């Protein structure tokens, strides 16, 4: 056991974690809440799809400017403010729904605003985490955050959301508003005595900082490789997820109840598998990524050849574990390569890639499923295998301990020139005492 593993995560992190858990529950509730509300307002599948697409459109379009704002503003104040703003937005939406004063256009607008605020929160929250825990704890902290988010936001939350909607259609919105209030209250108790100094930005233009976010996210070989891997895996997995209903109910022939239990079991098992093999997140970045891709290949093959609910659950568990581990690993590597004052823009750049790839992948997956319910999974397995073969040698460049100090931020970086004395640069973060080689987190 390394010295970093012997030291418990600080109390400050568990307050941060608690705020996230409450907020994720609200997010999970609204995952089904918005589509159900749209279905109640219109019988048109196109109208329901419009609401779902709008939720993805906001982060896809706004992540880069949101990242620039996150780096300009105080991270703690920003996450509190965004939670408070979302609480007000959902409270107003609940009142409108309960009084039957909202139409499909209003619901689409609320969905867009909610995810726009959520995008700013995500970019600021990633920067705040670097103030809450030291670099040596990035791996363990991100593992807790990603695993808990998967369970609460994608398993517990949607189930609760469905039950709440059946009781009163405004309840999912009201519960989401309450969750944001609770998260804001918890975050307001955070005290950050070791917060990094903020960069000086006296004469910087906002548009220039947005453009700089692109350079930060994709300007170096390791960052481009991670962006390519994240985009490719997100596209392939989104295509397989988009067709899961067709696979379960039509191809395999599960009933609605059996299909629901199959999905729940797969999602829970994915987190259990990830936690049970937690030592993978302590490997070198390259090793963890390769193992994750292998898991993903096996999982997608199991899905593409499934003839029963348990086989679907096992395939989902392996594929979900692969996504969790590679997400944790690459997020940790990026946090160690990019200086604290640029984390918001880096997160914005990668959010843009993920949501754009996810949208395209969903469309492709639906088109493939028209031909065969198994085809999206077999294609995804083939993409994972091609990615594994083509990146087998190149992923060694992702090992943070082997990367040059200037890997993520070129010497001409304007932001680097503006950092206050004492602010950590790439070398400072990566070489912090107690950071075990290859430890990774989400």
Overview of this protein structure:
By secondary structure, this protein is mostly helical. The protein has 2 domains: 181 residues, Growth Hormone, Chain: A; 185 residues, Up-down Bundle (Growth Hormone, Chain: A). It is built from 17 helices and no strands. Helix 2 runs parallel beside helix 6. The longest helix is centred in the first third of the chain and has 31 residues. The C terminus is likely disordered.
Question: Which shape, going by the Cα principal axes?
Answer: globular
State the order of secondary-structure elements, H for helix, E for strand.
Answer: HHHHHHHHHHHHHHHHH
CATH architecture of the largest domain: Up-down Bundle
Q: What oligomerization state is this entry in?
A: single chain
**Low-confidence parts:** 401-442
Strand content: under 5%
Question: Could you state the CATH homologous superfamily of the largest domain?
Answer: MFS general substrate transporter like domains
Salient structural properties:
Growth Hormone, Chain: A, globular, transmembrane, cell membrane, TM_effector, transport, mainly alpha
